[in-house]
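Appendix B. One record, verbatim.
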Amino acid sequence: MLEEVAARYHTEVLGYGPPMKSPQYLAINPMGKVPAIVHEGRVVTECAAICAYLAEAFPGAGLAPANADERARYYRWLFFAAGRLEAALTNKLVFQGEPDAQQQMMLGYGNYHAVIDNLLQAVTARHYLAGQRFTAADVYVGAHIGWGMQTGSIEQRPEFAEYFARVSDRDAYRRAGELDDALAAQRSEI
């Protein structure tokens, strides 16, 4: 998202475990989780919130919704992915099974297949989630889909592959990947 908005930024890589629970980092994010950004003294955590914040903080990038129709779809799919999709994927990975009918009534997402089917509808209804143009919702949801297909937590479906190809065929996505690869190479040398 930082590459999409063309912001100048500095990355600090934290290792899992003690570095993420250090007093310095807990002052930024008391949950001790990544990512977090500090922009003009303001702390923002949670991936979907970071995407929405940066889209608004950098309006020239054109990644925030432009009208009420886009805004409705934009927020719907940002929060769907942050809530229902993440919960369904986490439960699938951790518990390796479907909740029974009674448990599905208690869970906000119901079951994994319902979530995946809803997500499939979202990526096929329009060229992008909010409409015909790429927004921060596509950054966030696209990352989930790409990672999910790579790890097997999201089923390989042609519609997901086509959507991910659209959202990842961007200069900012390629730059971010190159930066991540360079950071990973540095960390492996340590």
